[in-house]
Each structure stands twice: as structure tokens, then as C-alpha cells.
Amino acid sequence: MIKQKMNNEDWKETLSEIKAVMVEFLEGKLNQESYQLTDDQLRFLAEYAIEQTGVEKANDIGKVQGYVMKRVNNHVTGEEVREIVRELLEQ
């Protein structure tokens, strides 16, 4: 087996592509009314939204919340999203 070293930019690009596929998968699941979104999945979506929106401060939480809420299709409340996003931005 040959191991190849990835440079930092290649690694970031690959990770970004993997995350995008995961989000696309979750969005498909969230179109089903009976789907139960887990806390870890919601946290992942919030982290992804923070990356995609470029938000770094809690005073821009609405941008991230809106991004997530468009994808969760009423599976969680805005307050649940806001709480997780705030926690992530304050880390």
C-alpha cells in the first residue's frame, strides 16, 4: 500500500467536499417528515453553516441560524439552533 501525503490545501479541499456530501445526504433525509435529527447532526449542520457563512462573532448568529433553518425543515426549533450556534461561536 502506498501512502501519499496530502498538503494542507488538498486536505482542506477534500474535507470540504466530504462535508458537502454529508450535508446533501442530511438534507435528503430531512425532507422526510418522520426523520429524527440527532443532536450530533444538528451540531454538524451548525458547524458547516458557520464555515459557509464565514461568521465569527455571536452578533451575526442570525446568518448562521437562517442557513441552518432552511435545511432542517421544521425538525428543530430556532431556539435549539440558536443555542448550538451560540455555543460554537463562543468557543
Number of helices: 4
Strand content: under 5%
| Shape, principal axes of CA atoms | flat
Distance between the termini: 39 Å
Q: What class would the helix/strand composition place it in?
A: mainly alpha
Helix content: 55-70%
Please report the first level of CATH classification, the CATH class of the domain at 39-91. Mainly Alpha
The largest pleated sheet is described as:
none
Q: Rg to the nearest angstrom?
A: 15 Å
Unreliable sequence segments: none
Total strands: the figure is 0
Q: From the 3D coordinates, which CATH architecture of the domain at 39-91 would you assign?
A: Orthogonal Bundle
Q: Provide the succession of SSEs.
A: HHHH
Average pLDDT, all residues: 91
Keywords, please?
91 residues, Arc Repressor Mutant, subunit A, 4 helices
